[in-house]
Design goal:
- It is a single chain.
- With 494 residues, the chain is an all-alpha fold.
- The protein has one domain.
- 80% of the residues lie in helices and 0% in strands.
- The chain is elongated.
């Protein structure tokens, strides 16, 4: 009997040990998944450095260029992880695209935008944030750009980790400003330009939110709240798709094709108007055919907005790749030019091999780390469906055009996320309005307690406050970090 009890105790101990090993195996798998992403990222950064060394050869300052290429690759990874979510999040949140499909489309169109239409001539000092001549020497300029790249990348990395979509443009601007102040004092900064950028913190999200809310109101008033929703959709969906086509045609002509051909705003608007009219005419029979047999309910309307939403996400990715890749590789290109020729005053054209680092880095960053922010933008701020997500995408294109017309600097991140906020807050307002209207018709209708009404808010306040706070501190945080990094580099090496 004692032997049997002993055997049972041993079996019990063995089971517990096996359970521990099983738990350890599960834990190892959980840890290994993010480690795989970090490992691939590290390999990409190393490969970028080696490629730059092979390309740059045995010229002067090869080590500096290799280090800068590694930093540029790291920055590109972070742009892919954070910034691209703004384009793909709404389509994924609306279930128009799967996560895998969104990543595949974004990788293809981001890379195409960067390599086909990107690489426009950029200013050596991030669009005139600081005066180039204030840097004094090429070596000081190079250390300043190194510090700006590293600080911007670290800040975007931190923002991605906490789940806050931030402007990579503002991160780079803050990095350049901080390094410039550390190198040459406050007088080196172009404060009027910084004032415009600060204004864009407010202008971008408000303008994006208002335009998105306006289109959602139009869709609700003209389609969703109509008795015959399908008949209304046959009239209005072709018009809305035509507006989208015209807006994106103007947007791409204005912002996405600068490298291929320079188009002024009036010409871009004429191009957009022509293409919008053509697409509207084409869509009338297509929508009529697509709507045949659909039930007269809101769920049926989602089908009609699915394909336009996917197309808009792809076009946004192309334009983003064409424009924002310079955030990753602009300072790198400036470092390459300063290292080769010692010239850091003139504008710099981005070499093709530098553009490849940016394009591939954005793609890898999106593939490895993008899903977190895609889910945040697409579903955690407010609930999106194809109609609401369509309004967000359309707002992003129209806001950039309006801002260009007014001469205002705007952030694509702030516009897209602001549009999501706008859609959510409009839904809250519309829901309250309909409750009040119903209460007038049926006076005895149950009124929810204030606590219950707060709980049912359609925009999650915690995410709203996290994102707004991250936006406000982006430039100063990147600036302080950059200044510290510059002082450390200059003290150690300079």
């Amino acid at each position: 009997m004692n032997d049997q009890q002993s055997d049972l105790r041993h079996l019990d101990t063995l089971d517990r040990d096996l359970d521990r090993f099983s738990s350890l195996g599960s834990a190892t798998n959980i840890i290994a998944r993010p480690m795989v992403g970090l490992g691939i990222s590290f390999v990409f950064v190393v490969v970028a450095g080696i490629a730059s060394m092979l390309f740059f050869g045995s010229e002067n300052n090869t080590i500096i260029v290799v280090a800068a290429a590694c930093l540029g690759a790291y920055m590109a990874l972070n742009i892919g992880a954070n910034d691209v979510a703004n384009n793909m999040g709404p389509a994924v949140g609306a279930n128009a695209l799967s996560m895998g499909g969104a990543i595949a489309i974004a990788v293809l169109f981001e890379s195409a935008g960067a390599l086909i239409a990107g690489g426009d001539v950029v200013s050596t000092i991030a669009k005139g944030i600081i005066a180039p001549e204030s840097m004094g020497t090429a070596s000081v300029f190079i250390w300043a750009m190194m510090a700006a790249l590293l600080s911007a990348a670290l800040w975007v990395n931190l923002a991605t980790w906490i789940g806050a979509p931030v402007s990579t443009t503002h991160s780079v601007v803050g990095g350049v400003m901080g390094a410039g102040i550390a190198a040459a004092g406050f007088a080196a900064v172009n404060w009027p330009t910084m004032g415009k950028i600060a204004a864009s913190w407010i202008i971008s999200p408000i303008l994006g939110g208002l335009i998105a809310a306006l289109f959602l109101w139009l869709i609700k008033a003209r389609i969703i709240y109509r008795e015959d929703k399908i008949a209304a959709a046959r009239t209005w969906v072709p018009i809305l798709v035509g507006i989208m086509a015209g807006a994106f045609a103007s947007y791409l002509a204005l912002k996405g094709m600068k490298k291929i051909i320079k188009i002024e705003l009036p010409t871009a608007l004429i191009i957009g108007l022509a293409i919008g009219l053509i697409i509207w005419i084409i869509m009338i029979p297509l929508i009529r055919k697509q709507s045949e047999g659909l039930e007269n309910r809101n769920k049926s309307l989602k089908v009609l907005f699915g394909i336009p939403l996917i197309v808009s996400a792809a076009l946004l990715s192309f334009a983003h790749g064409a424009n924002d890749v310079a955030n990753a590789v602009g300072p790198l290109a400036a470092i390459v030019q300063a290292s080769q020729s010692g010239d850091f005053i003139q504008a710099v054209s981005i070499p093709f091999w530098v553009m490849i680092i940016g394009a591939f880095g954005i793609s890898f960053g999106l593939f490895l780390f993008g899903p977190k922010l895609i889910r945040m933008v697409g579903g955690k701020i407010t609930k999106l469906n194809p109609m609401r997500a369509y309004c967000v995408a359309l707002s992003a294109a129209i806001t950039v055009i309006v801002a260009s017309w007014l001469g205002l600097p705007v952030s694509s991140t702030h516009i897209a996320v602001g549009a999501v906020f706008g859609v959510g807050f409009f839904r809250e307002w519309d829901a309250e309005r309909r409750i009040k209207k119903a209460r007038l018709v049926i006076p005895d209708q149950i009124v929810r307690a204030p606590e219950e009404r707060r709980r049912r808010k359609l925009v999650r306040r915690s995410h709203f406050m996290t994102i707004i706070t991250a936006w406000i501190v982006t430039v100063p945080a990147a600036a302080v970090l950059s200044a510290v990094i510059f002082i450390l580099i200059n003290t150690t090496i300079g």
